[in-house]
């Protein structure tokens, strides 16, 4: 049994050791700009164009869509009332992006970061985004996406059932670039999307964008979501092993 554990740990070590993730700079990655008043939201729509520095908004579909920066209240996220009072969970700071769609299914609103990098052959890219599900609304169908040349190449989705209420939870996404072909050298972007699934207003919140070149977690960081089931299982075994050890 011990031999089997040692083999598992050796394998996990080999898998975890080689790559070191390098952050790719994301402008306005915690959406602290522009500053908005507590409880307010600055929306991008056809009537009131307010840009999110570094980001571009796109709105489509038969319903009403808005996207912008908000400084939420306790009614949305407990503890959030107060100018720039820290948002809960995995958010950073007191402001976040809010994307709102309403009235008609298949309406969607999304924001896209300006070009971040060009695709390197065989490279692994990891995107982590804090996604908020407010107490007073449903998020609809949420997606975090990586695009290459404006086409979605990878996405992770979530909804009201999968996101804990009243807080921000990390979603994560890994994209492995092909070794060759037309995508290599293409323009990498990050896209955040809210897609309407019901008849009323739906609000999806996003914050703390982390985009990294290289997906494999460094040793000693087993709680990263990228680690996946194998590493989680490994961490559990490590913990049990440690508890049996004499030190
Ligand atoms: Ca606030
Ligand atoms: Ca909710």
Gist?
The chain has 247 residues and is mainly beta.
Describe the overall structure.
- The structure is a single chain.
- This protein is mostly beta strands and 247 residues long.
- It folds into 2 domains: 1-18 and 217-247, no CATH class; 21-215, Galactose-binding domain-like (Jelly Rolls, Sandwich), CATH 2.60.120.
- The protein is 13% helix and 37% strand.
- The strands form 2 sheets. Strands 1, 2, 4, 5, 8, 11 and 13 form a 7-stranded antiparallel beta sheet that branches.
- Helix 1 packs across helix 2.
- The protein is globular.
- The two termini are 20 Å apart.
- Mean pLDDT is 79; it is low at 218-247.
- The structure holds calcium ion (2 copies).
- One calcium ion binds at residues 133-135, 137-138, 160, 165.
List the helices and strands and how they pair.
Elements: H1 2-16, E1 22-24, E2 41-44, E3 55-60, E4 64-70, E5 96-102, E6 108-113, E7 117-118, E8 124-133, E9 141-148, E10 151-158, E11 167-176, E12 187-195, E13 202-213, H2 228-244
Helix pairs in contact: 1-2
The structure holds calcium ion (2 copies).
One calcium ion (CA) binds at residues 38, 71-73, 80-82, 85, 94.
């Amino acid at each position: 049994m011990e031999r089997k554990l040692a083999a598992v740990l050796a394998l996990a070590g080999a898998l975890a050791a080689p790559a070191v993730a390098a952050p790719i700079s994301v402008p306005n990655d915690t959406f602290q700009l522009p500053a908005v008043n507590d409880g307010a939201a600055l929306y991008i729509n056809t009537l009131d164009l307010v840009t999110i520095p570094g980001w571009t908004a796109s709105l489509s579909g038969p319903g009403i869509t808005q996207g912008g920066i908000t400084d939420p209240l306790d009614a949305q996220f407990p503890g959030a009332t107060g100018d720039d009072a820290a948002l809960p969970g995995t958010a950073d700071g007191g402001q976040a992006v809010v994307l709102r769609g309403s009235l008609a299914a298949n309406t969607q609103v999304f924001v896209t970061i300006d070009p971040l990098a060009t695709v390197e052959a065989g490279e692994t890219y990891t995107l982590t985004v804090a996604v908020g599900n407010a107490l007073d609304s449903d998020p609809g169908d949420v997606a975090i996406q990586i695009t290459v040349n404006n086409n979605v190449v990878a996405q992770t989705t979530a909804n009201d059932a999968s996101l804990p209420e009243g807080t921000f939870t990390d979603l994560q996404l890994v994209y492995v670039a092909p070794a060759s072909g037309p995508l290599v050298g293409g323009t990498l972007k990050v896209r955040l999307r809210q897609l309407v699934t019901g008849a009323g207003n739906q609000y999806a919140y996003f914050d703390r964008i982390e985009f990294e070149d290289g997906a494999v977690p460094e040793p000693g960081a087993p709680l990263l979501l990228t680690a996946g089931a194998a590493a989680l299982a490994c961490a559990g075994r490590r913990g049990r092993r440690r508890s049996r050890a004499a030190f």
